[in-house]
Amino acid sequence: MVINFGAGPAKLPKEVFVEVQQELLNYANTGLSIMEISHRAKDYITLHDATMQSVRDILNLPDNYKVILLQGGATGQFAGVPLNLIGRTGTADYIVTGGWSSKAAKEAAKYGKVNLVLPKVSKHTTIPDQSTWNLDPNASYVYYCDNETADGVEFPFIPETNGVPLVVDMSSNIFSRTFDITKFGIVYAGAQKNFGPAGITLVIVREDLMNHALPITPAILNYKDNFAADSEYNTPPTFIIYVVGKVLNWIKKSGGIKAMADNSQKKSQLVYDRIDNSGGFYSCPIEKPYRSRMNVVFRIGGGDEALEAEFLKGAQELKMTQLKGHRSVGGIRASLYNAVTLDDTETLVKHMDAFLAKHKQ
Ligand SMILES: *Cc1c(COP(=O)(O)O)cnc(C)c1O
Prior knowledge:
By secondary structure, the chain is α/β, with parallel strands linked by helices. It has two domains: about 240 residues, 3-Layer(aba) Sandwich (Aspartate Aminotransferase, domain 2), CATH 3.40.640; about 100 residues, Aspartate Aminotransferase, domain 1 (Alpha-Beta Complex), CATH 3.90.1150.10. The strands form four sheets. The chain has a seven-stranded mixed β-sheet with strand order 2-10-9-8-5-3-4, with helices on both faces. A hairpin with a 4-residue loop joins strand 6 and strand 7. Helix 2 packs across helix 6 and helix 3 crosses helix 4. It is globular, with a radius of gyration of 21 Å. The two termini are about 35 Å apart. About 45% of the residues are buried. The structure holds pyridoxal-5'-phosphate (PLP). Pyridoxal-5'-phosphate binds next to helix 3.
């Protein structure tokens, strides 16, 4: 069996695929595939509402946090966030800690003034101490990316904004650890890293923040309009939402976020320990407290591309796939999302051990 360490679209639980396969030609005894059922039909609405409720249940959301499902990917929200919120004061703070938050800041600058909280750097390997941050008390919101998928940098804390609404991109680590939702104004995440196929983005918005959209905001990105329409302002990607519902049920059955968090800790620790105990053969450029539990980034032989290619080829022969680092970073990236098991990770670590033994001295 192939082990998928891809960064996204990423591995999903096999049981989900099996269920989807079983139901594909005849959903809930309708005689129809879920793909050909109207988004206004009762059978679809039932699963749509159940999916939204699963999000609320798993994340334990209070009533004043609203769940919306939108298209356009996480990239759509790079525009959606400023369009809906920068109108409060006209400016926003961006904490850039990697490639994705950098892109988000560039997009936001089309709609208002963007203040970069941190000095620009060429490589993202850490998160500077909060005491050094240049926060603007007049900002409409403070934006950050909780886990930088390409760089392998993850926040070990929630930023303190002194009352300014906090907005977070959790595309690659939502449902992997618990967090205090009341610290946030907006949380969003594309599905294809940790909870479904590509094609839907989960947006959680504190109710009082829905009234600031710029007049030019397209209806399909407007939080208020989409919430009012139960995320059916236009035709939603019904099949994707159906699969997401199944992944969320799998999370619930598997012990909820607590279990996902424990596993993430164990899996990532296993790989980081190998890196740190390899006498420098493997190296992770990220400072320890900020190393991602989801995307473990490392180099081999100090960045020896021939060695890295050999490592990837050997992994492929052992049926481990999609381990190549992001093109902006290079090296190896092992993505350890919720569906990746401890066994999968142990197989990778065995390959690391054998490769080290072969090449050391
Ligand atoms: C993948 C990713 C994105 C972009 O997602 P798209 O769905 O391709 O737009 C944005 N932010 C983070 C953190 C990601 O991992």
